[in-house]
Design goal:
With 296 residues, this protein is an alpha/beta fold. It has a domain of 132 residues: Cytidine Deaminase, domain 2 (3-Layer(aba) Sandwich), CATH 3.40.140. The protein has eight helices and 15 strands. Strands 10-9-11-12-13-14 form a six-stranded mixed β-sheet, sandwiched between helices. The radius of gyration is 20 Å and the shape is flat.
């Protein structure tokens, strides 16, 4: 299914590196050389409205889900992944069309991405609607509590091979090598999907760590990539909302370069995710469901 084909404007192509960074003048100081003017490249952080539309009782409704601060590029995946994580979309058949717009349903002139749903959303839409600007650091803003987030137990294949710890500790460097925006700016997060052989299948970057994961979830859905027995790699720490997104996607393993939070550990244990943190320098800490690991 081509999510960009509809009577609406066609989806914009994926943004090149030039759209993800801004060259700016800055004053650099060092003890040896003092002050001098240099050009620096900073990662772009800009707003994106994310909306849904659907038909109900013969009328078409278009609703603003939220405005997020993100790094431009893969906006279609970001919107689709967010809706997947929020429980609006579970499969491609839930989406009728996906399109970009220059104005949101509130009349504000800003980049907007709208997902046209095949059916009206079930449940209490108001409980999940954010309708506010979220920062690039916030994946949980606009909700009354954790209980309103969709959370699923990760399916477990009895035939899945155990993962070698050396394979897992090699993953952050593989992710790092594919982070072109990070290399240029030093200012964005990365996330990647790897298979049980340690092969990187998809990589996404964003100034917001939760946005990077949403882009992965959207891309995986567009490509019909099943996430069972796959590894989610995070360039930073593992927090509650990232484990929640991993559970919705069906990841069996989350490997984070940084530390996990207590809520992340508790949720990973509850939903059946193997959570490993401090994955670097040929070492890791395994917090939950260590039976997926080869403990030789």
């Amino acid at each position: 299914m081509n999510l960009s084909s509809s009577s609406h404007p066609a989806a914009a192509p994926k943004s090149p590196l030039a759209e993800t960074l801004l060259v700016t003048s800055t004053l650099h100081w060092s003890r040896n050389n003092g002050f001098h003017s240099v050009e620096d490249r900073v990662v772009v952080e800009a707003p994106l409205s994310i909306e849904i539309s659907y038909e109900k009782n013969g009328y078409t409704t278009r609703r603003l889900l939220g405005v997020t601060m993100r790094t431009p590029g893969h906006d279609d995946e970001l919107a689709l992944g967010l809706l997947r994580a929020e429980g609006f979309v579970r499969e491609l058949g839930d989406v009728r069309a996906s399109f970009a717009a220059s104005e949101n349903s509130q009349g504000e002139k800003m980049p907007t991405w709208c997902i046209e749903l095949s059916h009206a959303p079930a449940g209490a839409f108001q409980a999940t609607s954010r309708t506010l600007v979220t920062t690039s650091a916030c994946g949980f803003c606009g909700r009354d509590g954790q209980e309103s987030l969709p959370i699923r137990r990760v399916p477990r294949a009895s035939t899945a091979p155990r993962l070698d710890c050396e394979l897992i500790t090699a993953l952050p460097e593989k992710l790092h090598r594919e982070q072109s925006t990070f290399f240029a700016t030093g200012g964005c997060h990365g996330a990647a999907i790897a298979n049980e052989l340690g092969t990187i299948l998809l990589t996404r970057e964003d100034v917001g760590r939760h946005n990077a994961v949403d882009k992965l979830l959207g891309a995986a859905l567009q490509q019909n990539l099943l996430l069972e027995n796959k590894i989610l790699i995070l360039s930073g720490r593992a927090s509650f909302e990232l484990i929640q997104k991993a559970s919705v996607g069906g990841f069996g393993v989350v490997a984070a370069v940084g530390a996990p939070s207590s809520a992340a550990v508790e949720l990973a244990h509850a939903v059946g995710i193997t959570l490993v943190g401090f994955v670097r320098d040929q070492r890791l800490n395994a917090y939950t469901h260590v039976d997926r690991l080869s403990l030789r």
